[in-house]
């Protein structure tokens, strides 16, 4: 059965049939992690990410949000309080965290704040994970982790790397949602489909 997936310029995916908003690699807390180490990073960056999530919830009214790992970046810091306050704004929205390699806080913190934590999530016809899967069996895998980008080159040899959505035969990879993340240029085949993310739209490449 065909599924309707909307690719959003906010670097999120909306699955209409399930009423699910899907985002990868928010990396909340990463700014605090660097600031704690004495590296000056604007704190507003993460609050802007939460504001963008709030706007998406207001617009699409999802039944649930699926975070494809790296929701909170590593050790506890003051940014966790911002995440908890934001979560409290949407008590009726189910929020599921598919654990990523940076989600190292104890599960008790997530559960106490209204998040469900899983290693993988099967919702037919998709299998959601943090890292891409080599053999996703009969389900189509959707993941994050890679922070995918695509490098475009102009006639004057100028280049730009855009965050992108990647769709292969058995695997999709979402761009990183968080602003304080980089992009990694993907290797891809002619049969793969790439969609570059511009400021206000998503374009096929």
Structure description:
The protein is α/β, with parallel strands linked by helices. The chain has a single domain, classed as Purple Acid Phosphatase, chain A, domain 2, CATH 3.60.21. The protein contains four helices and 15 strands. The strands form two sheets. Strands 7, 8, 9, 10, 11, 12, 13, 14 and 15 form a nine-stranded mixed β-sheet that branches. Strand 4, helix 3 and strand 5 (94-98) form a beta-alpha-beta unit. The longest helix is centred in the first third of the chain and has 17 residues, at 44-60.
Bulk shape: globular
Q: What is the total number of structural domains?
A: 1
How much helical structure, as a percent, in the residues? 10-25%
Give the class-level CATH name: Alpha Beta
Query: What is the subunit arrangement here?
Result: single chain
- The helix/strand class is alpha/beta
Number of helical elements:
4
CATH architecture: 4-Layer Sandwich
> What is the CA-CA span between the terminal residues?
26 Å
The CATH topology, please?
Answer: Purple Acid Phosphatase, chain A, domain 2
Largest sheet: 9 strands, mixed
User: What is the radius of gyration?
Assistant: 17 Å
Q: What's the order of the H and E elements?
A: EEEHHEHEHEEEEEEEEEE
Poorly predicted sequence stretches spanning 5 or more consecutive residues:
37-41
